[in-house]
Amino acid sequence: MRQRRTSRWEAAAVTAAVVYFVTMACLWLDRPGLYMDESNFVNAALGGRYPHQLYIYERLGGFPLLIMQYIGTAKGALFVPIFSIFGVSVSTIRIPAIALSAATLVVAYFMGREVIGRWSAVLVVLMGTCPTFIVMSKVDWGPIVVAMFLAMTLLLAFFRYMESGDIRWLWVVIGIALVGVFDKQNFLWLIVGIGAGAAVVYRSRLWSLARRRPRATVVAVASFAGCLLLFGLAFVLPNLSIQGSSSLQDPIPHLAFAWSLYQRTIGYSEVIGFFTGSFVTQPMWMDLQWVFSVAALGVLALRRRRGRLPDSAVVPARAACFFLIVFVVMVVEVAGTRQATGPHHVIELLPFPELVLLCSMVGVWRSGTHFRIVISVIAGLGISLILAAQAVSTVQYVSLMQNPGGLSTVFSTDVYRDAAFLNANVKDVDSIVSAGWGPGTPLFSMACPADRRKYRDDLWPHLVGLTPTTAPAAVRYFFGDKRILLVSVNNTPQSNLPSDLYADTGMLAAAYVSAFPGRHPEQVLKTSAYDITYFGPQPFEAGHSDC
User: Fold this and answer.
1) How far apart are CA 544 and CA 542, in angstroms?
2) Nearest to residue 371, comparing CAs of 276, 459, 295?
3) Which of 186, 216, 295, 331 is the least crowded, having the fewest Cβ atoms under 10 Å away?
């Protein structure tokens, strides 16, 4: 059934939601400070020309293929022309990510129209005003913006295939799925969820489409299975075991944790805690948003018991069941993955409860029964609660951005002071060495282009775990007679970083004095983000160079 043209109120609602999203994301664009997760792709986007930078895990013919074992270079490829034209900066890293998430909202609108018609505009409003989606898109930690865009596009292509039967849409579904897995392997969660939902809800339609063009369908499905198998054997299977133990786990004991993580992420308290390193209490009523989705689905089930739904109500009713199955399967998959412990692992669950609520509402409304009143009340209360929770979260977000002093070490805006200091002094030193996880990629990204070769993010794994006995030999080997600026995390006990991710700078300084009597390392800059210590045969002299 072909959709009607977009009405003025739909266009106005979607436009307003997108404008609001972009405006809120671009406010205080440099806050929080540039973070490792959103900059670890920069070396790959620059062609992987800097061998002393980490996060080029796999190459193909010299070109970066994977930045980590489970993250591909899809995002890096998107940024190649951007960095070539505008260079690397906070703006060129964050603005394109924000723009891609704005495009995700537009795609979500067209996807929603396939099942709920014009009510899809409400879905965009709920997504576009969600501060979790806003801020996680802005700093793109995880990363998540490419995956969210691909998820909405995959769902759109799936419903287009279901409605039209055009085999070309099936190939689009396959292409997006493969790109999504290449971008980040946990995209498999969504693929499995959609597969389970489709098998339960749309099996008759899928079988009918397959019988209509059996040969073309077999070729498409076999091609997808073959590509997924090859990719799985080469990249996914090795990641199922980490240091001899499986990365998978029994999901049942961990369902409560996965559910709590989802609630606290959507309610923003998990995000606030991630930024500040402090536990934030989330009002209990903010955890009840899902209740209205379940209630709406219950009303839809009661209506179905009264008799067959009209054809106009069947599409949203089935979609409600489909989205519920996808959501439940993905929650189980998150619970079954040992490393799935942060907001970036559950952000893709964001739209599904809202979709269940809206699809149930539209299904009952189109059925033309007295259930309309009940479903309208439930939907109205549900949407109101979601918007109220997002308003509370937005206040927290604005307050934090206005007072960035509350940000944790790795998100501190003092990273820009550190970058400016390094840019002013890099020409007078041989190397800038990271003493732990965190500073390597953001400082490298903000470095003067001609001086990026001096940035060493590959030494900190060798500096971590040293003892007073082994440290003198290590600093003699790695530092020698070179002039080194060592960048270390400020106040490591309060950084919430595991101890195996940072070196003991004080011990390195003592070992350096022991290895080179008469030399005295000097702390030349101390900020709330990182400390910079000079190691060298000559005294430190501040420079005044710049890009």
Assistant:
1) 7
2) 295
3) 216
- The residue among 81, 98, 89, 96 whose CA lies nearest residue 46 is 81
Of 153, 177, 36, give the one whose Cα is nearest residue 101: 153
DSSP-assigned letter for residue 59? E
Residue 1 has pLDDT above 70, yes or no: no
Distance CA 372, CA 361 (A): 8
Q: Which two tokens stand for residue 143?
A: 């990363």
Q: Percentage of the chain surpassing pLDDT 70?
A: 97
Q: Using one digit for the tens of pLDDT, what is the confidence trace for 302-356?
A: 998 888 899 999 999 999 999 999 999 999 999 999 989 999 999 999 999 999 9
Closest CA to 337 of 264, 246, 260, 256: 246
Q: What is the pLDDT of residues 243-281, one digit of tens each?
A: 556 788 999 999 999 999 999 999 999 999 889 888 888
Buried b / exposed e along 108-137 (16+ C-beta atoms within 10 A): bbbbbbbbbbbbbbbbbbbbbbbbbbbbbb
Neighbours of 96 (CB within 10 A): 18
* 354: three-class secondary structure by DSSP: helix
C-alpha dihedral sign at 31, 34, 35, 37: positive
Rounded Cα gap, residues 269 and 275, in angstroms: 10
Three-state DSSP state, 418: helix
Tokens of 165: 């039967």
Distance between CA 191 and CA 178 in Å, rounded? 10
Contacts of 425 (CB under 8 A, 6+ apart): 485, 524, 542, 543, 545
pTM of the predicted protein model: 0.94
Distance CA 495, CA 510 (A): 23
